[in-house]
Specification:
Elements (H helix, E strand, L loop, with lengths): L7 E5 L9 H10 L4 E4 L6 H15 L5 E5 L2 H7 L3 E4 L6 H8 L4 E6 L2 H5 L8 E4 L16 H11 L4 E4 L7 H6 L4 E4 L9 H16 L1
Parallel strand pairs: 1-2, 1-8, 2-3, 3-4, 4-5, 5-6, 6-7, 7-8
Helix pairs in contact: 1-2, 1-8, 2-3
The chain binds 4-methyl-5-hydroxyethylthiazole phosphate (TZP) and magnesium ion.
Length: 211
C-alpha cells in the first residue's frame, strides 16, 4: 500500500464547490497544501463519479496528493484511485477490501468508541472520526463527539485517524492534541472565496501543531 498523509484531507462537495467546481477546488487546495482529496458526491451515479474522478486524478497527477473515492467501489477501481472511503452503512469492510485488493487505501467512518474498537486493521487503513462538531454540510450526521470524544475514538481505533465535522484552521491544535493525524474538511475550503489561501492557513496551523 502507498504511504499516506492524513494531515490536510479535503472532502469535496459538489454543491459547496459549485462556483469553480470540484476539480478546480481540488487543484487550488493541493497547491495550498492539501495532502488527500476525497470525491464525495452522494447524488452522482457511477458513470459521473468515474468522469469526475478521472479529471481529479489528472489534476492531482504529480502533486503527491492522493485521491480517495467515497463509497463507490466500482468507480474507485475504474478511476485507478489511491483509495476508497466507506461509511458504516456502506459496503462491508471485508467485501470492500476483497474488491479493491491489497494495494488500495481503505478508509472507514467511525462515530463511536464501539465502532472504533471493532475496526479490523487487516482490512482498514485509516478511520475518519467524527463529527467533532455539528455541521450543516452533512444533514444526517451522528451526535457530535467534541474533542474529548475525538481523543477516545482515536485511542480506540487500531489504525491512524483523521478528524471530521465542523473543523476550521482554529481547531488544528486541538485535533492533533487529541491524537488524530489530521483533519478532514469540506466547508473550510470548498466554496470559500480563495480555496488556496484557506488551505494555506490550515497548513500553517498544522506545521505549528506538529512542531
Ligand atoms: N462526515 C461527518 S461530518 C461531515 C462528513 C462528510 C461533513 C464535514 O463538513 P464540514 O463542512 O467540514 O463541517
Ligand atoms: Mg457512505
Amino acid at each position: 500500500m502507498k504511504a499516506f498523509d492524513l494531515s490536510l484531507y479535503l472532502v469535496l462537495d459538489p454543491d459547496l464547490c459549485a462556483g469553480i467546481g470540484m476539480v478546480e477546488t481540488a487543484r487550488l487546495a493541493v497547491a495550498g497544501g492539501a495532502t488527500m482529496v476525497q470525491l464525495r458526491d452522494k447524488h452522482a451515479g457511477t458513470i459521473r463519479m468515474i468522469e469526475t474522478g478521472r479529471a481529479l486524478k489528472q489534476a492531482l497527477d504529480g502533486t503527491g496528493a492522493l485521491l480517495i473515492i467515497n463509497d463507490d467501489v466500482e468507480a474507485a477501481i475504474a478511476i485507478g484511485a489511491d483509495g476508497l472511503h466507506i461509511g458504516q452503512e456502506d459496503m462491508d469492510a471485508r467485501k470492500a477490501r476483497a474488491m479493491v485488493g491489497a494495494e488500495m487505501i481503505l478508509g472507514l467512518s467511525v462515530e463511536s468508541e464501539v465502532l472504533a474498537n471493532a475496526v479490523d486493521p487487516d482490512l482498514i487503513d485509516y478511520t475518519g472520526v467524527g463529527p467533532v462538531f455539528a455541521t450543516p454540510t452533512k444533514a444526517d450526521h451522528k451526535q457530535p463527539i467534541g474533542f474529548d470524544g475525538l481523543a477516545r475514538l482515536v485511542k480506540a481505533s487500531p489504525v491512524p485517524s483523521v478528524a471530521i465535522g465542523g473543523l476550521k484552521a482554529d481547531h488544528v491544535a486541538e485535533v492533533f492534541a487529541a491524537g488524530a493525524r489530521g483533519l478532514a474538511v469540506v466547508s473550510a475550503i470548498c466554496g470559500t472565496p480563495d480555496p488556496e489561501a484557506a488551505t494555506r492557513r490550515i497548513a500553517a496551523e498544522i506545521r505549528k501543531a506538529r512542531a
